[in-house]
Amino acid sequence: MEVKGMPNIKSAIKRVSVTAKKTAANKMKKSELRTVIKKAKASVASTDDQGATAIREAQKAIDQAAAKGLMHKKTADRKKSRLAKMANAVTKSAE
Fold this sequence. Notes:
Layout lengths: L9 H36 L5 H18 L4 H22 L1
């Protein structure tokens, strides 16, 4: 993280470093969450046998992210709903 003019006050200097660490951690967690969701979508689209498992794992990861405050609860609910809808559409078309 680049800071315009380093602060002079000790607590402000610490805030800069803490914010940089937290930003990096949140970025990593969000990236991991997006990867899990993409894998679930891909397994459902390919009508893979592990599709249901992947969907469950993605929904669990989304719930955990919402609980940690990484995303809003309603955003999490919307994402889970769309995943379930996609899975149901694939199973209905396979029948």
